[in-house]
Amino acid sequence: MTDDPFTHIPESGLRPFAIAAGQLLFRRDDPPRELFRVDAGRVALQRVTEDGQRVTIAQAGPGETLAEASLFADNYHCDAIALTDVGGVAVDKAVMRRHLRSDADFAEALVRRLALHLRNERQRAEIMSIRSARERTFAALACFGQSGTITAFAASIGLTQEACSRALAGLVSEGRVVRLGRGRYACRGVTTR
């Protein structure tokens, strides 16, 4: 059995989508009509704080899904903004709910995916509690690897690009992290994620 619940949905129920970097996939408070799987690119789920700051609460890259929290909600709870050009497939919310009731393999694949996502988000919350930018960066790199740019990686762990870059430089000089190429880093002994 595959862990991608979208493979259980007939192609007629899938709608390809593509958006350019900087465009919104959906907006907070819009009624949720679809859930999404990203096949290429990265999407940030963001909220705006009361003082007007945009905060990234999660990101989705190739093979990942988003808007699952809206499956039983009346509104999307955040904005989904393309960090790069993004392509993937969308599934109508009603189709997803129908498959949950009628297809046990689909339901199991969706629950498995959500459980993995929950574990990863708990791990990310633990990493976010690390005060030192250097140690937070190392922990995130060790747990998740670096997908995307340094800016996207930094945002995913609550750091500025500058603080993350300084942390990475320090980790490289300590020998704990290796530079794989321009803007690409990994923990020593790990070449890819």
Automatic annotation (TrEMBL):
It comes from the Bacteria. The keyword Methyltransferase does not apply. Keywords: Kinase, Transferase. The keyword Chloroplast does not apply. One of its GO terms (molecular function) is kinase activity. GO terms for cellular component: cytosol. Residues 17-117 form the Cyclic nucleotide-binding domain. InterPro entries: cNMP-bd_dom, cNMP-bd_dom_sf, Env_Response_Regulators, RmlC-like_jellyroll. This is cAMP-binding domain of CRP or a regulatory subunit of cAMP-dependent protein kinases.
